[in-house]
User: What shape does this take?
Amino acid sequence: MKILLIGQGGREHALAWRLKQNPRVKLISAPGSSALASLGEVEPVAVDNISALVSLANRVQPDLTVIGPELPLVMGLADQLRSLGLAVFGPSARAAQIEGSKVFAKDFMVRHNLPTASYAVFYDLEEAQQYLEAASYPLVLKADGLAQGKGVVICGKLEAALKGIHDIARLGKGQRILVEEYLAGEEVSFFALTDGKAIKPLLSAQDHKTIYDNDCGPNTGGMGAYSPAPLVNKRLEEMILETIIQPVVSGLATEGCPYSGLLYAGLMVTLSGPKVLEFNARFGDPETQALLPLLKTDLAETLLAVAESRLKDVNLEWENKSAATVVMSAEGYPGPYREDDLITGLDEARKRPDTLVFESGVLKRQEGATPTYHTKGGRVLAVTALGADLQDAVNRAYEAVGDISWPGAHYRKDIGGKALHQSLLYNCDDD
Assistant: This one.
């Protein structure tokens, strides 16, 4: 089975690793990375060069194309590949608006009566500032468009909100700003495969968005995750499927843009039930690095079944274990960060049992018999370990993290802490 994988980060490394568990899979990645090159062929085509990606797919004629990042989905890559008669895992551009535009997503949720926070939308800074001066706090600011996980600001005071709207405005020209009600509760990530008709839930997870321990500091693309999330029991899973996932799939189909791919709901579990914070139109990062090592069912055949509208025939099976992922980032991230620092200890970490190291921002150099590895990105590595329970998985992950170093390496020390210490109250004074 020839699979074209679009992307180059840690999520794609995890997808590629799991796809290659099927010995029939021949993998081609674009633009790829040194880690992906060790698992198959690499074609240096950027994820936003849609015409070149279409030409590549037309040339290699893959049995399946798996689109990892959100940008090519929003830009319509899946549509163009399907027009060539190719099997694609990933939603159309219209369906991907559920992630590509938070205004579209919020309006859609209102139309279909999904539980979510109240909100207001602003098109200019002056109007937004007037609203914020009269608002109650805390509240949440969001950029309308794609922001690589950095377009959300939780504001406890007016001063933070005024700074936040200017920061969001700088993310993109004409960027619309959402102001949302702050929801209190426990945040979880819920994933489901769908071919537009059948729906198959995956294991839940919890991401850790902010850069520092205790959920402090600015948002990042994700500093760690664990799966499954103990909070999501069978009853809550059924509630999420009934009140959120099924209405989204049905609603998009009703509106003429049926959804096929991975639907990711970021949820806040409140005292009145789960409410939607956001939707993503693809696998999460770093949740994928925690989720896929627990999957027993063949991933390649499963994603092909989604692309061919055969998901109802798939039975997903999972390891009876927990997984924890700790992201190691470069000094300065999520702001300007250092690059090209020598990484040591990767081989030692990978030799540990039930441990995987997925590369997000790593450059491999081969100048002699032994390769060297250097930092090349803000989030550099995702270290994942499996354990009999969450505490075991967390312990194993941090032991492997301890093997790895480079100048200025940073990681959170509290991944999994909310599940392991439910009574712990987090508080930051930098709002």
In short: The chain is about 30% helix and 25% strand. The two ends are 50 Å apart (CA to CA). Residues 423-431 have pLDDT under 50 and may be disordered.
